Amino acid sequence: MSKNLTTRSEDYSKWYNELVVKADLAENSGVRGCMVIKPYGYAIWEKMQAELDRMFKETGHSNAYFPLFVPKSMFEAEEKNAEGFAKECAIVTHYRLKNDPDKPGKLMVDPNAKLEEELIVRPTSEAIIWSTYKNWVQSYRDLPLLINQWANVVRWEMRTRLFLRTAEFLWQEGHTAHATKAEAIEESEKMMNVYADFVENFMAIPVIKGIKTETERFAGAEETYCIEALMQDGKALQAGTSHFLGQNFAKAFDVKFANAEGKQDFVWGTSWGVSTRLMGALVMTHSDDQGLVLPPNLAPIQVVIVPIYKTEEQLQEISNAVNELIGQLRSLRISVKYDDRTTQKPGFKFNEYELKGVPIRIAVGPKDLENGTFEVARRDTLTKEIVEKSNIVDYVSVLLDKIQKDLFAKALQYRESHITEVNSFEEFTNVLENKGGFISAHWDGTPETEDKIKELTKATIRCIPLLGKKEVGNCVLTGAKSAGRVLFAKAY
Q: Which pTM does this prediction carry?
């Protein structure tokens, strides 16, 4: 199996696109800007879903499902949210087609089937969900409402890229309602921390927790908490966001409750989400010029076993020995595939599983059976070891844990070496063009300066770090007073 991948150093963007397709994660579809997530890619997404869903339920959330369509008047109720998403909306205006009298065999929109009110295909679900919450909340006893939904959304992107930016994508969106401002803020911060925990410990991607500037904030939110990751090309990627909505949506949809004193008040809200964009982050953080590199916690296949044989008799002997190992590994909840296909040679299989990022490959031939050993190859380091049969199960179990930790450590080392403090605009542009990564710089706090820096450099403020330095300084562009450093970067 020939990979023929463009190298990262040659063309990072092309390398990414080729890898997503050749590793069988996804492909472009017959619908402009929409993708087909293939079984191998969807298996990774399912593992993400399962872990996040567990984490959400452990923090008290329940799943529900809300309509795909939002009446236009309902969508307009919260003005900032509607304005923020207006340019990306897909709109349903008619409900029926009919035969075109001028073009036999073709269909046309039936002009008599125009909807009384246009429907927005949800770009996000705040409007439909908050209009529903109005019926669910009367008293403080009904709060908090802690709801999540797994869904698809549509944002009419003009420039699309598999997983990173598509017209339709999969995600989860949490929407919660609370009796107090403090509870809602606590919820927003909690979910940011849940995302950080998942991305760091499951995806092996280090993140920086922070808040967005007013310019970068979610439309309709009073505060947006975020986790920011750094890709191998020095560009940032927003890996998850959690929004404190204040009472904005409650007021827009008249969601009130009677408090313990019997007084009416508007509830306080949050929303939070991550999407299939995390698949792009996974590919770009760990993979190399040979193909995908998957952290064991996310790999659909954690261990693949490939027999090396010449005769059917040898294959049978190897299979007998391997079946025992498979049973032992599966009893430890390790996912194993035994590839005994007779239609492909071992070299083809080695290449295939290297491309697909399977963390551990075990090769077994007649000599291995004689010696009571297995050849174990690591995908992340491309190294091999000969391991005794008596020790193989423990070795594999320990190695999977080590690979998970090593991938995180490697990504963290890259991230830490690509956070650069600068104190002048000359330094800023020099680092941005020649090194990349996060630039820690002073900013005067104004949207005008933020916009000017973006216009001049294409770099945006990724976040104001929650653990950032609280030092007074001078803005790198204007020289005006600054209360602390923020992180700039070019981003996906």
A: 0.95
